[in-house]
């Protein structure tokens, strides 16, 4: 197969990538179990807000190729927990990823299977490098959309199930207007190897 150079335009205001081959819209109803306050989830399911969108320009699945994409996480909370992505390990565990934040304010949760965790800031101009083996979740802690560009190996794949069952050991919550990192009471590291 012949691979040709291509260009893409990411609208900086909206985060939309033109001619994306895949657009993912995640609403609260797509991920109700990911939030810790289940009463708040039930209360907000009727409105069912869009939490985030991801635009992907996919290459054929190959270890020598990269996908490019952008994500836009809306501002808001479910209870006191900020809107966030599901978070995932890569199926190909060693596959890394790079984020470049264009606008907004966020946190990047990184967690290994061993439970080791790091929390990084996301702000315009910040480049986050995610090594292989680290699950990654992004959280919008600001009042406008968090928009970032991402690049990852085309054969990385996504493993959402491990995080759905295990959770991250920390939550990012709005504490009277200030983002705060707290322990996740539902964290269950023993469930998934
Ligand atoms: Fe990823």
Largest sheet: 6 strands, antiparallel
Q: Indicate the radius of gyration in whole angstroms.
A: 16 Å
Low-confidence stretches: none
Distance between the termini: 37 Å
Q: What is the architecture at the second tier of CATH?
A: Sandwich
| CATH top level class name | Mainly Beta
**In what range is the share of β-strand residues?**
35-45%
| Ligand kinds | fe (ii) ion
Describe the oligomeric state of these chains in a short phrase: single chain
Secondary structural class: mainly beta
CATH superfamily assignment? Answer: Jelly Rolls
How many helices? The count is 2
Number of strands: 13
Globally, the shape reads: globular
Report the average pLDDT across residues: 94
- How would you write the strand order of the largest sheet? 1-2-3-11-6-9
**CATH fold name:** Jelly Rolls
Number of domains: 1
From N to C, what is the helix and strand string? EHEEEEEEEEEEHEE
